[in-house]
Amino acid sequence: MKPDLRPLEGHREYPLEEMQRRAAEFCGEIRRRRTVREFSDRPVPRDIIEHAILAAGSAPNGANLQPWHFVAVSDAAIKSQIRAQAEAEEREFYQHKAPAEWLEALAPLGTDEHKPFLETAPWLIAIFAQTFGLLPDGRKVKHYYGQESVGIATGMLITALHHSGLATLTHTPSPMGFLNDILERPSQERPFLLLVVGFPAEGARVPRITKRGLDEIATFR
Ligand code: IYR
Fold first, then answer.
1. Which residues line ligand 1 (CB under 6 A)?
2. Residue 67 maps to which CATH number?
3. From the CA of 207, how far away is ligand 1's center (Å)?
4. Residue 98, in any domain of the structure
5. What is the count of structural domains for the chain?
6. What is the mean pLDDT of residues 46-72?
7. In terms of C-beta density within 10 A (0-12 exposed, 13-18 middle, 19 or more buried), how is residue 62 classed?
């Protein structure tokens, strides 16, 4: 198939000083993001979640095959099933499976097997990575760079939600195959991450952590 090329219309150019201001402002805005574990039960309108998912779905990805599916859950009964199964896996993790070294790395975050936020927060977004696509006639379509693609989309989802004024928690119960059963997703879709979304609880606290500075994370040559 020949590529269908057309003029780039969406690109915006700004005067240099405005670019510099925008770059610094966005850096400040995104560096305010914190992973939150204490959520309010205050509802969040569905259209905000829809816009964030649409933003995520615009992510660059392998051969534009868009190898993802997002399940946004606000239903209390489904959230409660997810909590029960996630806590069962997490109990195993914290009490048996996790090596001491891993538990030590997690200690500063104060995480444990209790995941009340899976019911408190108004939305859970389960992100699935499709290992292959399916055409209407049942033929399989190979996906490329699936993990990278879904990782980028997830980063954009988190950024979009933060931008709209919401807090998130990237939760990875392991294994999380139970999400396929509860959310009725086919076996070619692998749960990638469970994103908890909502307002922080009043007085929510977060671990005192720091992010590395530019000279520690980047080299210019
Ligand atoms: N899945 C567990 C453990 C956990 C692992 C990492 I790496 C974290 O950064 C945080 C937690 C849990 O969600 O508690």
1. 90, 93, 106, 109, 111, 171-174
2. 3.40.109.10
3. 14
4. yes
5. 1
6. 98
7. middle
